[in-house]
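I hope you will forgive my troubling you with a question about protein structure. Could you please explain, in whatever detail you think fit, how the structure tokens follow from the sequence? Thank you for your consideration; the sequence and its tokens are set out here.
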Amino acid sequence: MFLIARRHVVYPMLFKMTNQRVSKESHCGVLEFVAEEGKIYIPNWMRSNLYISEGDMVWLENVSLPSATFTKFQPQSVDFLEITNPKALLERSLRSFACLTKGDTIAIPYNKKVYEFCVLEVRPGKAVSIIECDMKVDFAAPVGYKVPETPESMDESDAYPFPSVARDTSGSSSTEPFKVFQGEGKRLDGKKKNLIAPEDTNASKQRGIPNYNYQVGRLNFVRAKDLKNLFGSSVEDQEVDKFEAFAGKGQALRERKKRK
């Protein structure tokens, strides 16, 4: 530590680690100076980036990196999509990092899982410092993620949701009238009595003929003489109910006593 201080090291201390055997390099900061002389301790994911094993030789060089302005990450698993707020998680976890190198894969533990992120892009250089900087973060699609396929154009038979109901494509009305509540009922006591719905006698009635000469804003009153022109037959052929005023019968709460 005394020798480093005499060499006018730039703070914060950032180092470039190089594996000269495969020409692979990465960057890191310093947590504590507690290791023995000539040794360093780095995380497993950092050793994987340098393609080294425990006890291998690496070269350290003190460097000064520019402050980061933009970083793009790619999650290495689709499990990343299950995180509720991934941006907040990454911003909180990056506080323990000093720098980032393009092409490295960092590991972030969260909720008893370890999520790996590949650094796809950093600006303004190949390696940047993320200490006290204003950095924009972007995400790429996770590895193994498949974009949901949009449904193809459905056939006319598939678009109709009720295949059991016959469709009338010819334009003519169906001969069988629609009947409602034709199912069977269930009783709480388990008895099977009067569970079949009675047949609706009014179901066979057909709808009336609309007035095709109707004009908006005009009231039409159908008279008995106009029924022939409207229905195409004479009045005698149609069953027309004649209106009779006060044709009902009265009801008394108490029956009259017959006089002897």
